[in-house]
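User: Hello! I'm new to structural biology and keep hearing that structure can be predicted from sequence alone. Could you demonstrate with SRCR domain-containing protein? Please show me the input and the output so I can see what each looks like.

Assistant: Of course. The first part below is the input, the amino acid sequence of SRCR domain-containing protein. The second part is the output, the predicted structure written as tokens.
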Amino acid sequence: MARSKATDPPADLLGPVQGEVSWFCCGTAWGPCSSTGKGACGTCNSGSLQHAWPNASDACWSITRPDRCGVSLSRRTCGFRHRITSLCGGGSVVTAIADCGPQTDLFCGERSCCGATCANNRLIDLTPAAYSQIASLSSGLRPAEISTP
């Protein structure tokens, strides 16, 4: 598929990408979260193994714009599963897309590290249940690898 301009969303995920992972609240109350909206897919819940993805739709892409940070992320829609592996200890979790986000272009160049292991640019938001599988919620951000399971 030919792209007409450089800002077109990428069509494929050619391999794993590294970036920052954070967490967010959605759906019914869970842990540190009070009740909130169900996300762009209408299924998001803080207590479920889910995530927000910056290229879940054209509307989502127009808000998040990871390409402005030099990152190409494939179009993946509601329910698509990713494996998120912490670069700080290697724990991993498989989650499903339930929302749009994070707004990557607001965090271009942001860097999180654990020791000498670092990653740049906030690429994925996990629900608290998912994030707590790979890191303490108090850490807030972690370098991670995002791949398909």
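User: So the tokens describe the shape?

Assistant: Right, they're a compact way of writing down the 3D structure. Reading them back into a model, for example: Residues 51 and 126 are 4 Å apart (CA to CA).
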